[in-house]
Every structure is written in structure tokens, then in C-alpha cells.
Amino acid sequence: MRRYTWRGRLPYRLTFDIRVVHAERLAVVEGIASGDVEGQGRWTFTADGRVTRVRFDWQVRTTSVWMNLLAPLARPLFRWNHDGIMRCGGEALARRLNARLATGVVSFESFSASGGWQKFIGNGERSRLL
Fold first, then answer.
1. Domain count of the chain?
2. Which of 49, 66, 84, 113 is 20 to 30 A from 8 (CA-CA)?
């Protein structure tokens, strides 16, 4: 279990724990998130010549009442903030690996009345390449 705190451009932070539930060396890591966001994530690593593709599928919902209440109105701000956090994360990972970020981070977010914000990073054709 590892705790993360993400801070974006807006004046709030999200703190959550990730518990790894499955890992295959150099192929995939899956984890369950709990805290300010709840759900699951899957990091997939594939080789393509001299490039390693890192795909991050993230299916979570926020647990903060204030955020879920504001989400229908503040969606553009939350998306802008979220995309900035994901872009910085991709750039930081590339620096840590001494790699070049080949494409920007693409994200898709949807709001569900029953489940709050659901964030999908790298779903479908949306992927982060290193």
C-alpha cells in the first residue's frame, strides 16, 4: 500500500492509497485506490521497437461530497485541473526514466449521477506513450 497526494492548479488536494493487487514484471501492474478517489487502475507496459508504451487505465470516482455536488457545474475546471495533473505526471515519469514523452496525455472524464466523477486515462485509443 502506498499513499499519494495529488495537487493541481486548483486549491484542493486529493489523497488516496493504492494497493497493488496484480503485477507481472515488465508487463502490467493493477491496483485498487481508496481515499479521496475510489476504484481501480491498470498500468500496461509494451515494447514497440525502441519505444516503451505506458498505458494507464484509471476508473475511479471521487468521494468528496463537495466535489461531487459541484461536478456538473465545474466540469470544465475539474477537467483542466485533471489534465494538468496527468500531463505533469507523464512528464515526471519520462524524466525519472530518462525518456522522451512521445505524445501528450489524453483523458476522458464523465460524470455519473450515481457514482460521481469517473476518470478514464488511456482508455480505448487514448494512451500515453513514452
1. 1
2. 113
